[in-house]
């Protein structure tokens, strides 16, 4: 039951929801039922079929339409008096500036990527508006509260970066199926169907004996070359010849099993077209329904293909691309919703896996890995949405003592499925909310400004539209309002070595990096250093004072590895986890390791006690309520949480 | 595991959840039949969840007419008399639920569930009721096939779920292995007969408080209990505590007062409890994952979602 005080706060509140997807739909519905009257929603996505298992405000007939708009319309049906403003736009759009954020009493995130979360975090800090963050993956979920000056901001604790793999693992020594997927998707598929001008590591070998010119020609289909012949030629090159060459290097295989070369003639001695004559009959106009599986009569995406089936699909898919989608070749990028692309990548990954003694996977599984699909159900989102609204109400009432971070667990821990924890105080070293200067070790006579901008400012600090100053001198900026001279000037600066800039950057210099939209200012102390370890510091720079979460154990070396390949963006509506694959491996890090800072906000503060009933409770009764809880563990102690997390990792 | 393959339509729609619980579990869900009695806000949430999950059928029972209280916490009922006029709560909810997933058969059954016989119950795999009923629980237990039984109740800013899966076999994942397990559940009557002193000292106070409230409310229709009953409930609490050698102050008067006065549901609690219930029913049907045994409590005051095992230790077998 809601007290008068709560009702008033709710009625008068102006709320911003960022995201109208899995969490967003549940959240909007619960906010509406709870009496909220004025809500803005921002979401740039349109509705897809795979959303409908949980984003219940949407119907089949809405596929393709704006999530924000359809969500609004659906909720207005059962709460017509509400004011819901839908923005079909990217939250990073400059129109959602600090002024925009300032109009809200609280911001509620239902996002699916780290980048947007950091952006919203910074804007909320700049606008001094409380933020309630959340995420879900499968049965796991969490809700956290961030209030400037009172609690940690979203970036106070390190968030794991998306997983990357060393190039050599992908090109030469795969040991897991995901390595084969990355090879098939980012190297082979890209080489055959993507932009020809893109750098591609496909033929990178440890001992580069053969000429690269020869290697380049191999992948291009010769004029009038028979498509079956072309397909087999490619097959034999990547699965046969390349493997033989790689296999010949003794060093690489000292402690590893040698891969087996696979030739098409051995797997499929007969001519493919004799097997099925369907391709010619396939007069399909709609390219998106062209499918090698359909062609070959393989119906179930959950079946794991054999080497033979994978090989057939490989050739058939290649054929179909050239036969039906020739115009797209040279421009294609992998899309998980492109059936033929997924078939091709699955087939290629499977053949490579067979070569290296790795188990093959079904299309369903491969698609999940290649597409970074996050598994999701309605129930977790509903639970998290309920918890978000509960926190939002506390925030509106400024009941600081009552703020909680709540974890929705898959397995009962200490008798709990929902575990509340008190938020931490702000991290004094957080460069985002505490404005602590960072330190950068760099060779100022060798590194260019461009390197600094790409590797530090954008990649690590998440500032995409930076302004870089040395004292009062503008070294670099981005913007629409720059004139030709300025643009040329900045372009020139990018190519200069730091110590040669108009305002030289040397040992002891302090640079200021700003993002005007996020109203973030970051000071960086420059320290000159001559040498950097090529293996451990391939970037040639070392940023400190900025915390990066430790990588998953077996990929430790790849973290700072310049030569590393990721598996595409992190499109997780989550807890910064990698999808399916990571879950199986028990590498979930859904509860980010706290930095052990003093936690309790409530220490020493005798702030108001939340009245869950009406406001007429007298003081004595209220005190009684408080005493009631003195023998319960109200808060889970840090150590327990830690050991619990570890326990969970082992159990999984 | 028997059964036809999932259709292409099902695979496309259920893709994201199949990645959570697998195709086998999805097939089992599509063959399951759920009965729900008492369409309060929390139950509406549960129904939404279970329909989205893709069960075979959902049957709703609630002959009450629509009132403001009904639609205030239930998003399946539009606050428009032109829409709900002349219909029962179940009928209005049915119309809304059908929309969420055309592959699920949603229908209405009229009448009093507790007066129906075994033949009726036999059609279902799961029965969910929104007020404790020993009688209905007993009927579920008398059948030759296992019918999972759940009660769910939310009042003020708390919620309770009771689970009875009788003898339940399931599989769970431990690192890379799949382990087969078994749980034995007490009936509702058996559970509440467990002496209070046998329960852990830190057992959720809500358990005790709600037993007092429900015992007082026994025989009366839901919602009939009001602040006027508070003195009687407090007296009952004292008696129960004495009989069970439990310190009366362990269950505060203020908690009981909250529960008596706050008969209305709080929508965020409905979402939380309806979500947990949804997950539990999915586990029971799919036989995958360890179901909770046997009470679940949620209270906004402390923010915890707690599981209490209220059973006689001798009867348990793992």
TrEMBL record, chain A:
Gene3D superfamilies: Ubiquitin activating enzymes (Uba3). Chain: B, domain 2, Ubiquitin-activating enzyme E1, inactive adenylation domain, subdomain 1, Ubiquitin-like 2 activating enzyme e1b. Chain: B, domain 3
GO biological process: protein sumoylation
Localization (cell): Nucleus
Listed CDD domains: Uba2_SUMO
Residues annotated for Zn(2+) binding in this entry: 153, 156, 430, 433
UniProt entry tagged with the keyword Cytoplasm: no
Quaternary state and interactors: Heterodimer.
Molecular functions (GO terms): ATP binding; metal ion binding; SUMO activating enzyme activity; transferase activity
Family of the protein in this entry: Belongs to the ubiquitin-activating E1 family.
Keyword vocabulary terms for this entry: ATP-binding, Metal-binding, Nucleotide-binding, Nucleus, Transferase, Ubl conjugation pathway, Zinc
Biased composition (Polar residues): 560-576
Active-site residues, Swiss-Prot/TrEMBL: 168 (glycyl thioester intermediate)
Lineage, highest ranks first: Eukaryota, Viridiplantae, Streptophyta, Embryophyta, Tracheophyta
Domain spans labelled THIF-type NAD/FAD binding fold: 2-431
Domain Ubiquitin-activating enzyme SCCH, residue spans: 323-367
Residues noted as binding ATP in the record, renumbered to the chain: 19-24, 43, 51-54, 67, 112-117
Residue ranges occupied by any Ubiquitin/SUMO-activating enzyme ubiquitin-like domain in the UniProt entry: 440-532
GO cellular component: cytoplasm; SUMO activating enzyme complex
Name of the protein in its database record: SUMO-activating enzyme subunit
UniProt-annotated stretches for the region Disordered: 529-633
Sequence ranges of Acidic residues compositional bias: 624-633
Pathway noted in the entry: Protein modification; protein sumoylation
Biased composition, class Basic and acidic residues, residue ranges: 614-623
UniProtKB/TrEMBL annotation, chain B:
Domain of life per record: Eukaryota
Protein's name in the database: SUMO-activating enzyme subunit 1A
Annotated source species: Citrus sinensis
């Amino acid at each position: 039951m809601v007290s008068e005080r709560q009702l008033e706060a709710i009625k008068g509140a102006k709320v911003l929801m960022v995201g109208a997807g899995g969490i967003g739909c549940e959240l909007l519905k619960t906010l509406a039922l709870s009496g909220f009257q004025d809500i803005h929603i921002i979401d740039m996505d349109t509705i897809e079929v795979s959303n409908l298992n949980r984003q219940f405000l949407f119907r089949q007939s809405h596929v393709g339409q704006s999530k924000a708009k359809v969500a609004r319309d659906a909720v207005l049906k059962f709460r017509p008096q509400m004011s819901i403003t839908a923005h079909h736009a990217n939250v990073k759009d400059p129109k959602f500036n600090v002024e925009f954020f300032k109009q809200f009493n609280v911001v509620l995130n239902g996002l699916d990527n780290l980048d947007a979360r950091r952006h919203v975090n910074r804007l909320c800090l700049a606008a001094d508006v409380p933020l309630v963050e959340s995420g879900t993956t499968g049965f796991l979920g969490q809700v956290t509260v961030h209030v400037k000056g009172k609690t940690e901001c979203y970036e106070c604790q390190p968030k794991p970066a998306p997983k990357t793999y060393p190039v050599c693992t992908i090109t030469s020594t795969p040991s897991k199926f995901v390595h084969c997927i990355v090879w098939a998707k980012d190297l082979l598929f890209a080489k055959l169907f993507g932009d020809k001008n893109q750098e591609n590591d496909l033929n990178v070998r440890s001992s580069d004996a053969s000429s690269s010119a020869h290697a380049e020609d191999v992948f291009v289909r010769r004029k009038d070359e028979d498509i079956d012949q072309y397909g087999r030629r490619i097959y034999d090159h990547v699965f046969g010849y390349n493997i033989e060459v790689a296999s010949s290097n003794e060093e690489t295989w000292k402690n590893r099993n040698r891969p087996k070369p696979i030739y098409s003639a051995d797997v499929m001695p007969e001519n493919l077209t004799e097997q099925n004559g369907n391709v010619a009959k396939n007069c399909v106009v709609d390219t998106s329904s062209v499918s090698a599986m359909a062609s070959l009569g393989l119906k179930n995406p959950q079946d794991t293909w054999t080497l033979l089936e994978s090989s057939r699909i490989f050739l058939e898919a290649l054929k179909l691309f050239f036969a039906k989608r020739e115009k797209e070749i040279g421009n294609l990028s992998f899309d998980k919703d492109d059936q033929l692309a997924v078939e091709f990548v699955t087939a290629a990954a499977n053949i490579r896996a067979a070569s290296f003694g790795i188990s093959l996977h079904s299309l369903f599984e491969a698609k999940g890995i290649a597409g970074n699909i996050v598994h999701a159900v309605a129930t977790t989102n509903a639970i998290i949405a309920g918890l978000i609204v509960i926190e939002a109400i506390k925030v509106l009432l400024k009941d600081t003592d009552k703020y909680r971070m709540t974890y929705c667990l898959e397995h009962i821990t200490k008798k709990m499925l929902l575990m509340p924890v008190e938020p931490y105080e702000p991290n004094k070293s957080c460069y985002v909310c505490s404005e602590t200067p960072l330190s950068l070790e760099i060779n100022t006579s060798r590194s260019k400004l461009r390197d600094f901008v790409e590797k530090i400012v954008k990649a690590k600090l998440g500032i995409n539209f930076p302004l870089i100053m040395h004292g009062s001198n503008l070294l670099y900026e981005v913007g629409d309002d720059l004139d030709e001279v300025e643009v040329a000037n900045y372009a020139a600066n990018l190519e200069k070595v730091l110590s040669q800039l108009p305002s030289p950057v040397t040992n002891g210099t302090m640079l200021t990096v700003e993002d005007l939209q996020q109203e973030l200012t970051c000071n960086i102390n420059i320290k000159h250093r001559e040498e950097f370890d090529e293996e451990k510091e391939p970037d040639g720079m070392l940023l400190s004072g900025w915390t990066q979460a430790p990588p998953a154990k077996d990929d430790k070396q790849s973290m700072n590895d310049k030569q590393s390949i990721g598996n595409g963006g992190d499109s997780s509506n989550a807890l910064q986890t990698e999808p399916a694959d990571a879950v199986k491996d028990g590498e979930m890090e859904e509860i980010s390791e706290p930095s052990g800072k003093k936690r309790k906000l409530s220490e020493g503060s005798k702030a108001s006690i939340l009245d869950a009933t009406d406001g007429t409770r007298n003081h004595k009764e209220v005190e009684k309520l408080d005493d009631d809880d003195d023998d319960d563990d109200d808060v889970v102690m840090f150590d327990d949480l830690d050991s619990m997390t570890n326990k969970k990792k082992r159990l999984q | 595991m028997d059964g036809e393959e999932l259709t292409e339509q099902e695979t496309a729609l259920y893709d994201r959840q199949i990645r959570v619980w697998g195709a086998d579990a999805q097939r089992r869900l599509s063959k399951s039949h759920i009965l729900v009695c008492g369409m309060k806000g929390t139950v509406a949430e549960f129904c939404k969840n279970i329909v989205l999950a893709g069960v075979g059928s959902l049957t709703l029972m609630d002959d009450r007419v629509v009132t403001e209280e009904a639609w205030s916490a239930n998003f399946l009922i539009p606050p428009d008399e032109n829409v709900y006029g002349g219909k029962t709560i179940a009928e209005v909810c049915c119309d809304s639920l059908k929309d969420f997933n055309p592959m699920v058969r949603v229908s209405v059954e009229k009448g009093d569930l507790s007066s129906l016989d075994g033949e009726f119950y036999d059609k279902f795999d799961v029965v969910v009721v929104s007020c404790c009923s020993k009688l209905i629980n007993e009927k579920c237990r008398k059948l030759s096939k296992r019918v999972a039984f759940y009660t769910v109740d939310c009042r003020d800013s708390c919620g309770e779920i009771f689970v009875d899966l009788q003898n339940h076999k399931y599989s769970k994942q431990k690192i890379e292995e799949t382990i087969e397990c078994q749980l034995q559940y007490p009936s509702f009557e058996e559970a509440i007969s467990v002496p209070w002193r046998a329960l852990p000292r830190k057992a959720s106070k809500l358990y005790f408080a709600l037993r007092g409230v429900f015992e007082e409310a026994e025989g009366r229709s839901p919602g009939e209990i009001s602040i006027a009953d508070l003195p009687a409930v407090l007296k009952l609490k004292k008696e129960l505590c004495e009989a069970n050698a439990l310190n009366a102050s362990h269950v505060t008067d203020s908690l009981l007062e909250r529960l008596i006065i706050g008969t209305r549901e709080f929508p965020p609690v409905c979402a939380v409890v309806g979500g947990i219930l949804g997950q539990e029913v999915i586990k029971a049907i799919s036989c995958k994952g360890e179901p909770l045994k046997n009470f679940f409590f949620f209270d906004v005051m402390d923010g915890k979602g707690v599981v209490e095992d209220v059973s006689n230790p001798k009867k348990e077998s793992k």
